[in-house]
Amino acid sequence: MRETPLLKPSKLGTSSQQTARGVAMTQDVTPRLERFKQVMDRTGLARATIYRRIQEGTFPQPVKIGTRSVAWPSAVIDDWIRGCTSDH
Protein backbone atom coordinates (compact mmCIF):
# COMPACT_ATOMS: atom_id res chain seq x y z
CA MET A 1 0.00 0.00 0.00
CA ARG A 2 1.40 3.39 -0.99
CA GLU A 3 1.39 6.26 1.52
CA THR A 4 -0.27 9.46 0.39
CA PRO A 5 1.91 12.53 1.01
CA LEU A 6 0.52 15.26 3.25
CA LEU A 7 -1.32 18.00 1.43
CA LYS A 8 -0.23 21.59 1.74
CA PRO A 9 -2.41 23.51 4.24
CA SER A 10 -3.62 25.85 1.48
CA LYS A 11 -5.27 22.88 -0.25
CA LEU A 12 -7.09 21.75 2.87
CA GLY A 13 -9.59 24.62 3.02
CA THR A 14 -10.51 25.85 6.48
CA SER A 15 -9.61 22.74 8.45
CA SER A 16 -6.67 23.04 10.81
CA GLN A 17 -5.87 19.37 11.42
CA GLN A 18 -4.46 16.65 9.16
CA THR A 19 -4.10 12.91 9.41
CA ALA A 20 -1.00 11.03 8.31
CA ARG A 21 -2.73 10.34 4.99
CA GLY A 22 -3.35 14.04 4.35
CA VAL A 23 -7.10 13.90 4.86
CA ALA A 24 -8.48 17.06 6.41
CA MET A 25 -10.28 16.60 9.72
CA THR A 26 -12.43 18.98 11.70
CA GLN A 27 -12.87 18.76 15.42
CA ASP A 28 -16.14 17.16 16.41
CA VAL A 29 -17.91 19.45 18.85
CA THR A 30 -20.89 17.14 19.37
CA PRO A 31 -20.88 15.91 22.98
CA ARG A 32 -20.36 12.14 23.09
CA LEU A 33 -21.01 9.68 25.86
CA GLU A 34 -18.67 6.77 26.43
CA ARG A 35 -19.95 3.57 27.94
CA PHE A 36 -18.07 1.65 30.63
CA LYS A 37 -16.23 -0.64 28.22
CA GLN A 38 -14.99 2.33 26.17
CA VAL A 39 -13.77 4.10 29.30
CA MET A 40 -11.99 0.94 30.46
CA ASP A 41 -10.30 0.63 27.05
CA ARG A 42 -9.25 4.28 26.94
CA THR A 43 -7.93 4.46 30.50
CA GLY A 44 -6.52 0.95 30.85
CA LEU A 45 -8.28 0.62 34.20
CA ALA A 46 -10.34 -2.36 35.34
CA ARG A 47 -14.02 -1.97 36.27
CA ALA A 48 -13.31 -2.44 39.98
CA THR A 49 -10.50 0.14 39.87
CA ILE A 50 -12.76 2.71 38.22
CA TYR A 51 -15.47 2.15 40.86
CA ARG A 52 -12.89 2.40 43.66
CA ARG A 53 -11.47 5.64 42.25
CA ILE A 54 -14.98 7.08 41.91
CA GLN A 55 -15.52 6.35 45.61
CA GLU A 56 -12.14 7.94 46.45
CA GLY A 57 -13.01 11.00 44.38
CA THR A 58 -10.06 10.49 42.00
CA PHE A 59 -12.15 9.54 38.95
CA PRO A 60 -15.11 11.43 37.46
CA GLN A 61 -18.65 10.47 38.40
CA PRO A 62 -20.60 8.78 35.59
CA VAL A 63 -23.89 10.01 34.17
CA LYS A 64 -26.81 7.62 34.59
CA ILE A 65 -28.29 6.95 31.14
CA GLY A 66 -30.67 4.13 32.06
CA THR A 67 -31.81 2.01 34.95
CA ARG A 68 -28.69 -0.17 34.75
CA SER A 69 -26.28 1.81 32.61
CA VAL A 70 -23.88 4.69 33.02
CA ALA A 71 -21.64 6.67 30.71
CA TRP A 72 -19.14 9.52 30.82
CA PRO A 73 -18.95 12.54 28.53
CA SER A 74 -15.90 12.08 26.28
CA ALA A 75 -14.59 15.52 27.24
CA VAL A 76 -14.57 14.54 30.92
CA ILE A 77 -12.52 11.41 30.20
CA ASP A 78 -10.20 13.41 27.90
CA ASP A 79 -9.61 15.92 30.72
CA TRP A 80 -9.00 13.15 33.25
CA ILE A 81 -6.45 11.47 30.96
CA ARG A 82 -4.70 14.80 30.34
CA GLY A 83 -4.60 15.39 34.10
CA CYS A 84 -2.98 12.00 34.65
CA THR A 85 -0.35 12.57 32.00
CA SER A 86 0.46 16.09 33.21
CA ASP A 87 1.19 14.75 36.71
CA HIS A 88 4.23 12.85 35.43
**How much of the polypeptide forms β-strand, as a percent range?**
5-15%
Any idea of the CATH class of the largest domain?
A: Mainly Alpha
Strand order in space, largest sheet: 3-5-4
Largest sheet: 3 strands, antiparallel
CATH architecture of the largest domain: Orthogonal Bundle
As for the number of domains, it is 2
Overall pLDDT level: 79
Sequence stretches where pLDDT stays below 50 over 5 or more residues: 7-17
Question: How would you characterize this protein structure?
Answer:
Helices cover 35% and strands 15% of the residues. By secondary structure, it is of the alpha+beta class. The protein folds into two domains: 1-27, no CATH class; 31-86, Recoverin, domain 1 (Orthogonal Bundle). The strands form two sheets. A three-stranded antiparallel beta sheet has the order 3-5-4. It has a two-stranded antiparallel ribbon with strand order 1-2. It is globular, with a radius of gyration of 18 Å. The model is unreliable at 7-17 (pLDDT under 50).
Which secondary structure elements does this structure contain, and how are they paired or packed?
Layout: E1 17-18, E2 24-25, E3 33-35, H1 36-43, H2 47-56, E4 63-64, E5 70-73, H3 74-86
Antiparallel strand pairs: 1-2, 3-5, 4-5
